Amino acid sequence: MLGVTAIFVILAVGPASRYLLGKLPRIEGLRIMEIEHKIFPDGESYIRFPEEVSGEDLIVLQGTHPPQDRHLIQAILIGENALDLGARSIVLVSPYLAYARQDKRFLDGEAVSIKTILRILHQVGYRRIYTVNIHSPWIAEESPIPLIDLRAEKILAKYLKKVGLGDSFIVSMGKKGREMARMVAEELSTDYASAKSSRDRRTGEVKIELGEVSAEKAVVVDDIISTGGTMASVVKELKRMGVRKVYAACIHALLVGGAVEKIMGSGAERIIASDTIPNSYAEYSIIGLVEEAIRRELR
To answer: Which CATH architecture has domain 153-272?
Structure first.
């Protein structure tokens, strides 16, 4: 936890996560500081703290969603600036942590990007990083900085129940996805299955293997929807099996490269996402997890 003698802690809200600020409830012992920023004509970021931080503990709320490189640079500038101005400690809360999908070398000569990012954030001086459903949770064991992975499966399950999808069959992708499906299904007291997906590392083509599913409704859950190829393939396979209504749900909605068109074109009823990333399909919020991270630091 942060310094025990502090009367309050500053929540330094970075430009990437300002959209979440209005959803955060009032927390005793927390002072909000919205960081001033602008983008120069050449694309570089300007960061300024509008108040003194010397001797203070800072929780930096700054996602690293697209544009990832810009938001990462801003997180680095914010952390370095805080310590240079005399802050006592800094902690990063980043609802979406970029580069987590490159956690090993899939092809010879590749950079293991997430390890590099974590080392940089450690060198900047962040004491801890909180994130939500990191794509490669096992990387925490190798991280040079404590990495706390907050899980959003229960929040997703509660939302599915709220909108009348609590009795749906839950489907996920891969070994890691099976754990996500299990957590959602257990919260809903429903059944689940995991599809096996394989992707050609050079062409990106996805192949799906899934046992027979006999259900009226199914929700396909994944931690991230990026280009939507895998999600669309699973939705299409479920429709082929005769599942009448199929929904696509995720935590992190990147939705790039025509993902929405692919998923809806495969027969999905709708896309359900959280607000870890600003997107048009955010139907439920992870602000409770952000609040949890903050309260942990206030103990």
So the answer is: 3-Layer(aba) Sandwich (3.40)
